[in-house]
Amino acid sequence: xxxxxxxxxxxxxxxxxxxxxxxxxxxxxxxxxxxxxxxxxxxxxxxxxxxxxxxxxxxxxxxxxxxxxxxxxxxxxxxxxxxxxxxxxxxxxxxxxxxxxxxxxxxxxxxxxxxxxxxxxxxxxxxxxxxxxxxxxxxxxxxxxxxxxxxxxxxxxxxxxxxxxxxxxxxxxxxxxxxxxxxxxxxxxxxxxxxxxxxxxxxxxxxxxxxxxxxxxxxxxxxxxxxxxxxxxxx
Length: 235
Description:
Elements: E1 4-8, E2 13-17, H1 40-46, H2 49-53, H3 63-76, E3 94-96, E4 99-100, E5 103-108, E6 112-117, E7 126-129, E8 134-137, H4 140-148, H5 152-161, E9 163-166, E10 173-178, E11 186-187, E12 196-198, E13 205-208, E14 219-220
Parallel strand pairs: 11-14
Antiparallel strand pairs: 1-2, 3-4, 5-6, 7-13, 8-10, 9-10, 12-13
């Protein structure tokens, strides 16, 4: 895919308008018997995702990888979905004021894929906004159809990246996924504390909890979102 470069004098940065490449459509494989009742774990086992998940040398997804995921989402989940961000998914997405999210993807030692600060980030600064990045599945069956439309390793990637979330307390849970490099954000631990968190379990905007140096890994806390596959009919 060849980018068309445009100059943005207001921000004094280059943005790229990317034409969505038409990846050859992938025919959906025959759905297994009883697929509508497959739990998350059953789908995970069906694709033999355990070995893929534990591979710390999985490559960073290519532009073609992200495009196929987006194409299959439009084909099997939401035909009206729009993926017209001028910033390609390999570089993130437009965060605010025509600026890209302040991170890039690379392999993280001992963790596999991760995202790292592309510049110094101040404490309290917006690092990631899921409302500009995430797609939402209307129900468990649309998520299952999407998974079964993908090659095995892509399906395993999606199962590693997806989560469920309430957008307001007491309301229904939704299955969410980011189809860009923000999906590669790792969780912190006792040794490396999370440095980018939402304000609550229903929020989608992540703020820096401390100053983050350029090239430092951006880490969140997966436990913030109480992922509940039973609540979306997948348990």
